[in-house]
Amino acid sequence: MQTKSLNGELFAHMVEGGAARLNETRVIVNELNVFPIPDGDTGDNMYMTIDSGCSAVKAGADMPLGDTSKKIAGGMLLGARGNSGVILSRIFAGISQGFEGVGIADVSTFAAAMERGVAESYRAVQTPVEGTILTVYSDAVRYANARIDEHTDFEAYFENFLDELRASLDRTPQLLDVLREAGVVDSGGAGFVYIAEGMQAVLKGEELKNASSVPTGSKACDMSALTEDSPFDFGYCTEFLLRLRTEKVGDVAAFDEKPLIDWLIANGESVVAFRDGSIVKAHVHTMEPERILAHCHGFGEFLTLKIENMCLQHNETNIRNNYKPPQKPKKKFGIVAVASGDGIRDTFLQLGADAVVDGGQSMNPSAESFLEAFETANASTIIVFPNNGNIILTAQQAAALCRDADVRVIPSRSIGECYAVLSLIDMSSGDADLIEKSCEEIMASVATGTVSRASRDTVKDGIGVRKGDYIGFSDGRIYVDSPDPAEVALSLAKSLSADDYGILMLVCGRDADSKQAQEIRSALQKAHPLTEVILLDGGQPIFEYIMIFE
What we know:
The chain is α+β, with helices and mostly antiparallel strands. It has four domains: 203 residues, Serine Threonine Protein Phosphatase 5, Tetratricopeptide repeat; 79 residues, Alpha-Beta Plaits; 117 residues, Rossmann fold; 103 residues, Hypothetical Protein Tm841, Chain: A,domain 3. 45% of the residues lie in helices and 19% in strands.
């Protein structure tokens, strides 16, 4: 088959095929992890990002190509998770820009749009690193675009595109030492190869399993969370797509959505709402979903509708916070932090965080999760602590989407940095720039070490790592490997110069043994008598112990 033109419906099906192929292989992508601990989540992040794009276009895949691609890009923007997910969303945002005003594209138009994807994805990253998904995608676009002639069809384009995608992916260890040392290729690049394979399969007329038919790993609904006598404090998470109707609003093109969105803000919480053409997308937390729906029904008809009882807490984007209606007027400053583990979350809230977004190594939050947290913080200036290098881009993307506050993303890479800042931060100056600078200075004075089990054999930083052993690491460097976690903790504390710090916070993970934790605390205190060792039950996954030196 020779496909010479691409319309909105075919493009939507190709993206769905890409999501389906990635869903089949995301465990493989997850396992392409540089660090030998079970925290690989690139495949999950990229899948949830592209699946959000697919969900956004399900009701309108027969639109012109420009409109369809804009819908897909918008869905991916809100659903983006992790660095690779954010970059993926920006690739499709650039492609959408290239399709603006286009009903049907030929190969040359498609190639130009793909080039826009290169520019947009590089623009999204403050310091682009070669040897990542950026390189793999840009290499393939240049290769395929350079081979277009008057006879090139979409099948031929994708053959060239995929050939170079795979070749560039194989070259990534030559560009990044960490990949070469770990013996893996770039996981984000691999994820994109699988997406392109799925897009090509649809182009060829092959059948792929529906991406949305495969469970995404969200938690089952816990009915016991709300009994006959339970207090009902959290309300309902209400989401819908509303098609504006001429018979209800008159001239749809001239309709001003601002009064409707203002009404939602006044009558609900955690509102995320915007208009795209004749469709209004809304997300709102409310005690009375029927009242919200009745009001909005006066402007059009619902295309999709979802109501979830937040007491059951089974939404994958659930935000853990001390939920209460925000006070009016807004506070001057608010704090949003990311954490995984009940103990860490509660500690951050006690130290002054207004909202804590669930997330970390094994599950990166979406931009929409951050937007909900910003609503909860309800402040003119919001300080955000991502606490993980793979979440910083998503936080920055959410900050760019926020229109109601000055959002400052502090590039924290560990909960230790965040803990120290929350303990010492002084906002009395009222100067956001000074506060931001102070946060970065405090973070520079803190060290964070981690003890975790190794998920595979490898050699890194001159340390031979054996699967099942415990490893001690900090800032991406492995210092010690041993089957004894106490030995690892003591060696790591020595390597990080524990004697130079006044406090060592030993944060115990979900799988840590409580008796063993006490023994490790005692051993650390004996080895470093001038440093106060404090034990905290963090409840975090993956990391048996996190050691915060301050």
